[in-house]
Amino acid sequence: MTARLLFDDLALVKEYLRYDDDTDDSLIEMFETAAERKVMKIAGKSEEDFVACADAMRPPVLYATAYMLEHRQEADHAELDITLRALVAQERDVPV
User: Fold this and answer.
1) DSSP string for residues in the chain
2) How big is the CA angle at 41 (ends 76 and 91), to the nearest 5 degrees?
3) Would you say residue 4 has pLDDT above 90?
4) Residue 82 and residue 87: Cα distance in Å, rounded?
5) Distance (Å, rounded) from C-alpha 39 to C-alpha 57?
6) pLDDT at 23 exceeding the cut of 80
7) What confidence score (pLDDT) does residue 69 get?
8) Are 4 and 61 in contact (CB under 8 A)?
9) What is the pLDDT of residue 57?
């Protein structure tokens, strides 16, 4: 599994999700890693730049993790991408 970038402790992610059970930890970690990659791509950031602006990137990553976990059977990734673009709009690195 790819290393997680923004959250050293899964407990922080689970606290946001209000998830106490340990049975789905690997699933939550997988969604959190996927959310980081998705937000990084939408923001147009390299890993280094993504980590450098971690404070701004954590809320969209948490939102995407929660969305993917809750909607794992019927996730609308186009809708998720639109929401994430709005959440990272001020931090996006895109060529003009």
Assistant:
1) -PPPSS-S-HHHHHHHHT---STTHHHHHHHHHHHHHHHHHHHT--HHHHHHTHHHHHHHHHHHHHHHHHTTTT--HHHHHHHHHHHTGGG-----
2) 105
3) no
4) 9
5) 8
6) yes
7) 92
8) no
9) 93
Say how far apart CA 61 and CA 76 lie, in whole Å: 16
Q: Which two tokens stand for residue 48?
A: 């280094």
CA 24 to the chain's CA centroid: 17
- Report yes or no: 81 and 42 within 8 Å, Cβ to Cβ: yes
Rounded to whole angstroms, the Cα distance separating 20 from 18 reads: 6
What percent of the chain clears pLDDT 70, i.e. is strictly above it?
A: 93
> What is the C-alpha to C-alpha distance for residues 79 and 68, in angstroms, rounded to an integer?
12
CA-to-CA separations, 66 to 6, 14, 19, in angstroms, rounded: 15, 9, 10
Its pTM stands at 0.87
Amino acid at 27: L
State pLDDT tens for residues 56-67: 999 999 999 999
